[in-house]
Backbone:
């Protein structure tokens, strides 16, 4: 009898342990807890590195929320609205979330370029410095406030991925000095194109799917677009074998989620914190993944496609900075939003860039020591 009682007691303990363990398994929402479903659409190709960053972050949010937040499979551009309409769609609640890039809204206010494509950093900031400004220099609030200043009061923005440095462009011939830039027709986008113009190039906007065709037909002599994965898939080196780096026009900036405010406020406080924490966590995960990806595709271009990587001459890089400074001076004079944000970036850069210049080893010096050019 005593053995039976002991057996029953042990059996009860085992059952209780199983129940508690099941309850604590992450990813399993309680049957009593509401599962909140949100529609997410991207403005980028689903095959590109940018949308992969969105997918990584969505998966993490669902995982950490224990399944209480359920995000739709990432919807391709045009599934619900056209890519150019996602801002209005989030504002009105047609979309719960859009994955996008602040540079798309420069037509509404030029200050959006300061979160998307800032030539020279600005003021020498790296993408890590830029994220520091967002977190500790007031950048996040300035970003959210900018939407309100253009009449979008239902937008709650979150950073998901920092930009990696792009190429200056793919050219049909190598550039040895600024004289070689004269008369070149280049496909480029965004307000950072002022640097190409300052260097003597003619800038034209060509939709992404048409770039390679325009290179083939000689309509353009060069093009910049995005990450190397996308440029590999599009076949850039078939007609432009000279990849010029670095690109001074877009060393910083970010991509992220725009969340409809009403959808956001439906999330209880703990899920709001989980959503925000996951976005913050994935900022570096996503950029580190892209660094690895970029390195792999750079090797593919050299070894499989016969691409020549050309270091952009300093006189061309300087022209980009000069052109940007002229543009900034004009924008500050006529756009108080631009002035406020740019001055905030300058104040943060003034603190961190001189420190890093003195304390951090020169990256090129170390790279040249360990990985000299062959």
Residues:
């Amino acid at each position: 009898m005593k053995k039976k009682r002991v057996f029953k007691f042990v059996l009860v303990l085992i059952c209780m342990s199983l129940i508690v363990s099941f309850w604590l398994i992450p990813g399993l929402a309680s049957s009593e807890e509401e599962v909140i479903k949100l529609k997410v659409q991207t403005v980028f190709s689903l095959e590109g590195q940018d949308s992969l960053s969105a997918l990584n972050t969505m998966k993490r949010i669902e995982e950490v929320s224990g399944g209480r937040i359920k995000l739709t499979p990432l919807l391709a551009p045009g599934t619900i609205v056209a890519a150019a309409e996602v801002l209005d769609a989030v504002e009105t609640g047609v979309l719960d979330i859009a994955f996008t890039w602040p540079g798309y809204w420069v037509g509404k206010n030029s200050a959006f370029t300061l979160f998307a494509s800032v030539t020279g950093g600005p003021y020498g900031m790296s993408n890590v410095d830029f994220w520091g400004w967002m977190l500790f220099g007031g950048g996040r609030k300035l970003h959210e406030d900018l939407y309100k200043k253009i009449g979008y009061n239902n937008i709650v923005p979150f950073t998901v991925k920092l930009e990696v440095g792009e190429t200056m462009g793919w050219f049909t011939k190598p550039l040895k000095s600024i004289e070689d830039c004269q008369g070149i027709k280049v496909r480029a986008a965004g307000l950072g194109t002022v640097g190409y113009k300052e260097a003597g190039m003619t800038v034209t906007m060509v939709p992404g799917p048409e770039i390679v065709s325009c290179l083939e037909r000689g309509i353009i002599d060069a093009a910049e677009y995005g990450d190397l994965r996308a440029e590999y898939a599009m076949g850039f080196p078939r007609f432009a074998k000279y990849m010029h780096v670095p690109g001074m026009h877009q060393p910083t900036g970010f991509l992220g989620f725009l969340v409809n405010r009403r959808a956001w406020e439906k999330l209880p406080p703990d899920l709001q914190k989980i959503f925000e924490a996951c976005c913050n966590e994935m900022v570096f995960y996503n950029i580190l993944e892209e660094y690895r990806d970029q390195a792999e595709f750079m090797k593919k271009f050299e070894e499989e496609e016969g691409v020549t990587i050309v270091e952009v001459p300093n006189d061309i890089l300087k022209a980009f900075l000069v052109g940007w400074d002229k543009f900034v001076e004009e924008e500050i004079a006529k756009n108080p939003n631009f002035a406020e944000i740019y001055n905030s970036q300058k104040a943060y850069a003034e603190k961190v860039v001189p420190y890093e210049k003195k304390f951090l080893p020169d990256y090129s010096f170390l790279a040249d020591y360990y990985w000299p050019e062959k």
